[in-house]
TrEMBL record:
Residues 67-155, 172-271 form the Cyclin-like domain. The gene is LOC110981294. InterPro entries: Cyclin, Cyclin-like_dom, Cyclin-like_sf, Cyclin_A/B-like, Cyclin_C-dom, Cyclin_N, Cyclins_cyclin-box. Keywords: Cell cycle, Cell division, Cyclin. Pfam families: Cyclin_C, Cyclin_N. One of its GO terms (molecular function) is cyclin-dependent protein serine/threonine kinase regulator activity. The keyword Cell division applies. It comes from the Eukaryota. The lineage of its organism: Eukaryota, Metazoa, Echinodermata, Eleutherozoa, Asterozoa. This is Cyclin-J-like isoform X1. Belongs to the cyclin family. It comes from Acanthaster planci.
């Protein structure tokens, strides 16, 4: 994965594409006459999600499978909603079924991704994944095995995969929060010389996308409701951006979560961020020694570089 330097630090190049997608989501929320009804429907559906237990004997392989699916989504430019739905399906299915063979785990992960792509994406993206499946040695199974796995998954979810994810809630929260912030002068940016709204609009999407990725990689977030994960991503981003207050009254009203509801998840996200920051700085020094300072290659765990002190904000 490539990381590109911005004034505030290193961000994955793929997040630049995600910024555009999230901006489109924001416009959709702003222009929709059914915003309130859609949000109420998502909250209602959220209560009906299959609970995550975390008892799969293959739980230690989950991170590898999620990263593999994320790489496929990045390669074929598949929407982030697809990945979140696919991981949701993977988690719940692995909870109830013991799958020993690695080839079957790959088949399961790929089938989750393919079903999600059929549901969320354009037909051309489905075709690209089908071609990959036919040519890849990782998922080398016959069509009958794939169709059997697809049917088993759909039956497991009672053919209902209309599930809200953290990405859906995040789009709504960010849009509503931006509208509230534009009419408020109570926010203070402790580390930014420009306007607070300008600062948050530029970098909030990058940080929230980064923390969304963390929430997928760490199965601990699968225990939480998607709306809570989305709220935690916003709060963790505000800590990194040093926005004060970290959690405003308008955010409490919009998300329906108080600080104490999300504090544990924020701390977990920021601990991961600290590890990623150190890795990014170390690799930046190594890369600088070779005379390249513009574009750097990192592993998937590398993250945005930030010099803020989190201990005071949490």
């Amino acid at each position: 994965m490539h990381f590109i330097w911005f004034e505030r630090g290193y961000f994955p190049a793929v997040l630049l594409v995600e910024d555009c997608i999230m901006a489109q989501d924001a416009q959709w929320w702003l222009n929709s006459d059914l915003t309130g009804d859609i949000y109420s429907s998502m909250k209602s559906q959220e209560e009906k999600l299959v609970p995550f237990v975390g008892q799969s004997p293959q739980l230690h392989l989950r991170r590898y499978l999620v990263d593999w699916m994320a790489i496929l989504c990045e390669k074929y430019e598949i929407d982030r909603h697809v990945l979140h739905l696919a991981v949701y399906m993977l988690d719940r299915f692995m909870d109830r079924y013991a799958i020993v063979q690695e080839s079957q785990l790959h088949l399961l992960a790929f089938t989750c991704l393919q079903i999600s792509t059929k549901f969320e994406e354009r037909e051309e993206k489905v075709s690209k994944l089908s071609i990959y499946h036919a040519q890849s040695s990782v998922t080398s199974t016959n069509k009958e095995d794939y169709l059997q796995m697809e049917l088993l998954l759909l039956q497991f979810f009672d053919w209902n995969i209309t599930q809200p994810s953290a990405t859906h809630f995040l789009g709504y929260f960010l849009t509503e929060a931006a509208a509230a912030a534009s009419s408020s002068r109570n926010e203070v940016c402790r580390s930014w010389q420009g306007g607070c709204n300008e600062y948050s609009n530029i970098y909030m999407h990058k940080y929230t996308n980064y923390f969304l990725e963390i929430s997928l990689q760490d199965h601990a977030f699968s225990f939480a409701k998607p709306s809570l994960v989305a709220a935690s991503c916003i709060a963790a981003s505000r800590v990194c951006l040093q926005l004060s207050p970290t959690w405003t009254a308008s955010l409490t009203r919009i998300t329906q979560y108080k600080w104490e509801h999300i504090a544990t998840h924020i701390e977990r996200m920021l601990r991961t961020h600290d590890v990623d920051e150190k890795a990014a700085k170390c690799q930046a020094k190594e890369k600088t020694s070779y005379g390249s300072q513009k574009t750097m290659s990192y592993n998937r765990e590398a993250a945005v570089s930030h010099s803020g002190d989190y201990s005071r904000a949490i």
